[in-house]
Amino acid sequence: MSHPDPYGGAEPRGWDRPERPPALPWPERDVEPTGPWNRQSGADLYAGPQARPRPTARRYDEPALDPYDGHGDRYDRHDVDRYGAYDDGYDRRGPGRPPRDDDMPTSALPPVRDDDVPTSQFPPVREPSEPERDPQRPPGRRQPGRRRASADRPATGQASSRAGRNLPAAIGVGLGLGALILIPLFFYLPAFLAVVAGAVGVGIWEMARAVRRSGAHPPLVPLIAGGVLMIGLAWYAGPDALSLGLLVTVLGTMIWRLGDGPGGFQRDLTAATLIAVYVPFLGGFAALLAAAPDDGHLRVLATLVAVVLSDTGGYAAGVSFGKHPMAPSISPKKSWEGFAGSVSAAAVGSAVLIWQLFDVAPWWGALFGVAVSVAAVLGDLGESMIKRDLGVKDMSNLLPGHGGLMDRLDSILFAVPTAYLLLAVFVPVVG
Fold it and tell me: What's one GO BP annotation on this UniProt entry (predicted)?
């Protein structure tokens, strides 16, 4: 039995209902209601000139024609409520079909800004290799195991001094170099000549290697050969032969370099001339000191002692009292306090040594020590300026704790010409 129609119609509802429902009591008789049973009437309702066309509805099992979401036909999204149904009350999602994510009106939600999220309550993100910080350790103190070695900062396991060098290695290498010089100097003088020639050859190699960083390529073979020649000429023939050896070395280097073409010739020849004057020519005065008859080994000893006292006094005074930089743009570690320590130590030591060795008044020995100390400091600053211009820290790494051999010869190369001239005045050469 069919139930009566709630709108007052007499026709039954359900399976006995005809396909087209009867007309309902609408306000306007000419307009039929729209709904799932009358699609044509719904199209006529929106067929006015000011109304936008409304597409027909489809069942949930019909193929999708909407190019925007693929779930419905071409309908306006404003005609769909939040659960995916048309506003006419008919749900086309099908029975048991859950609502889609794109059916949710997310545009109605307020945007979330970055400053609305309290990020301060989250713990900081650490790198995978970063260890846990000890809460008991002060915040300004470095965690253990985080220090890395570099060229300017040695590793934690190395013993370094305030001056930035490995002090035990520097002392050991210094003692070895001293023995290498003093043993042949007192027992077999020609062997000392071989030591000087070998040191000059190594110094030329280090200088040529360093200046290549600036783009210059001085020929190494004629420089080393000319350096050894200058040492021999100074030993056997005196200062005039040393000057002649310098001229021959520069000319030989020029001829050798011409074989490589004109490109960069002036630059390479300038670098070669600098090396020839700086290393073998100045080093030749050590051979002149040793070639003095009867007391040549004592002259070399007095010069080396004055240089060692200057370096040691400057190092001790600079580490203990150094506060005023002497030449910060060239050598930041040198201070005026260290320079005063160098001059004082060399003056006192040379006054006693010259008096004992050559029977010269102590004040002449003190003057000798001051002059040698000033020359040694200038030589050190000169090489520091060259290294800074070339962008190198050390000439090489041949000597642990010292760098290269030229890092130790820089003071001696400027000191030996000064000592040779002063001793020639204070202690005239007999014969």
Answer: CDP-diacylglycerol biosynthetic process
Q: Where are the domains of the chain?
A: 23-80, 187-291, 292-431
Q: What whole-number distance in Å separates Cα of residue 102 and Cα of residue 70?
A: 11
In this predicted structure, what is the pLDDT of residue 158? Answer: 43
* 300 within 8 A of 284, measured Cβ to Cβ: no
* SS3 assignment, position 326: strand
In this structure, how many other beta carbons lie within 10 angstroms of the beta carbon of residue 284? 30
Q: Write down the pLDDT at residue 118.
A: 56
Written as six digits, the tokens of 354 are 């010259």
C-beta separation of 259 from 222 below 8 A: no
Global pTM value: 0.61
Q: What is the pLDDT of residue 112?
A: 60
Provide the CA 78 distance to its chain's centre, in angstroms: 62
How far is 275 from 246, CA to CA, in rounded Å? Answer: 11
Q: What one-letter code names the amino acid at 116?
A: D
pLDDT given for residue 372 in this prediction? 96
Residue where the block lists tokens 């006292």 = 309
DSSP labels for 250-308? HHHHHHHHHTT-STTHHHHHHHHHHHHIIIIIHHHHHHHHHTSTTTHHHHHHHHHHHHH
Q: Which residues of 118-147 are buried (b: 16+ CB within 10 A; e: fewer)?
A: eeeeeeeeeeeeeeeeeeeeeeeeeeeeee
- Beta bridge partners of residue 331, listed in sequence order: 327
d(CA 48, CA 164): 94
Tokens of 154: 């040695």
Cα atoms found within 13 Å of the Cα of residue 154, Cβ hemisphere only: 14
Residue type, 99: P
What residue ranges in 330-424 does DSSP mark as E strands? 331-335
Contact 310, 376 (CB under 8 A): yes
Task: Name residues of the chain where pLDDT drops below 70.
Answer: 1-166, 401-402, 429-431
Residues in CB range of 382: below 8 A, 6 or more apart = 410, 414
Backbone angles phi, psi at 119, to 5 degrees: -75, -15
Query: Please, which residues have CB within 8 angstroms of residue 392's CB and are 6 or more apart in sequence?
Result: 210, 213
d(C-alpha 249, C-alpha 106), whole Å: 88
Q: How far apart are CA 307 and CA 342, in angstroms?
A: 9
Instruction: Give the residue among 28, 22, 17 at the shortest CA–CA distance from 7.
Output: 22
What residue type is 211 in one-letter code? V
**pLDDT tens, residue by residue, 91-103:** 444 555 555 555 5
- What pLDDT score was predicted for residue 159? 42
